[in-house]
Amino acid sequence: NASMKDGLDNDITTAGGQVVGRLQLTSNYTDPRRATDLTSLVTNPDLRPLGLTLPTTGDAGDAAGALLAWVLVGNGTASDLTQVITGLSAGAYLTVDKSPHPARAIVVVGNGALPAGDVGGKMLLALVNQLQAAGAFVVVAGDAAAATKGGLVALVRGDDAARNAVCTVDNADTAMGQVSTIIALAEAVAGQSAQSSHYGTGAGAKALFPDPLPVTGPTAEPTAPPTGAPTASPSASSSAATPPTAATAGPTGG
Q: What are phi and psi of 152, to 5 degrees?
């Protein structure tokens, strides 16, 4: 997972983007035995930013995902982002690889297969959906195993809402897949993504590789990817980016 995230960060930078943060979700975040504690933390008025209305589903993944998404995309104030990340870090629900700044272009990295119906996988899918609902441009990147069973890529591709709104790449542990991830992120920001924006070789992929973004003139350079920020995994990791900067996020997965 670390080498994949480093490779994505390098490709974002090479393409003219900037990684503006990187977070790593811990196993505590996705542990159903910690769900009540996590819910208590994210619904605490001392942590919850003013103006944020949390989902009323009673689901820890929905509530925590909504809170993280709200601050990562830049809603609220700068102090809200710091307060939320500090609170979740103090509770051992995430670690900070690089302190994040708000960004709407976000790569969520999640490797490996999870058992079908795994609660942790559902919590990660909830985070992805909450990021998208908050206005983020999201690419979920993983390896081939992540496109099987309860892996995060498979969950996104199998979810009606996420499948049509979030891009996925199932070979992001390869150089080709990492380039695909960056192009998919740029596509999303440019408004060119469609439900066919699922790349790789696994079940649900629509193409091996995205078409390059068009240039605007004979001497123009390809459109730069958005900037990115944090990374997340079950552990998952996530990065977010802002054009031309980016970040990564992901569950902890290696």
A: -65, -40
Give the C-alpha distances (Å, rounded to integers) separating 35 from 93, 116, 139, 233, 251. Answer: 11, 19, 26, 16, 16
Asked whether the beta carbons of 44 and 252 are under 8 A apart, the reply is: no
Residue 67, Cα to own-chain centre: how many angstroms?
A: 14
Return d(Cα 144, Cα 169) in angstroms, integer.
9
CA 149, distance to chain mean position in Å, is 19
Phi first, then psi, for residue 80 (nearest 5°) are: -65, -45
- As a whole number of angstroms, the distance between CA 30 and CA 134 comes to 21
Give me the tens of pLDDT residue by residue for the chain, a chain 254 residues long: 788 999 999 999 999 899 999 999 999 999 999 999 999 999 999 999 999 999 999 899 999 999 999 999 999 899 999 999 999 999 999 999 999 999 999 999 999 999 999 999 999 999 999 999 999 999 999 999 999 999 999 999 999 989 999 999 999 999 999 999 999 999 888 876 654 589 999 999 999 999 876 655 443 333 334 445 444 444 455 565 443 344 555 564 44
Which tokens in the block code for residue 206?
């629509």
Return the structure tokens found at 47: 């942590």
In 3-state terms, what secondary structure has residue 48? Answer: coil
Q: Across-strand partners of 237? A: 24, 250
- Rounded to an integer, what distance in angstroms lies between the CA atom of residue 201 and that of residue 198? 10
pTM of this structure: 0.87
Show the beta-strand stretches assigned E in 99-205: 105-109, 137-141, 167-169, 198-199
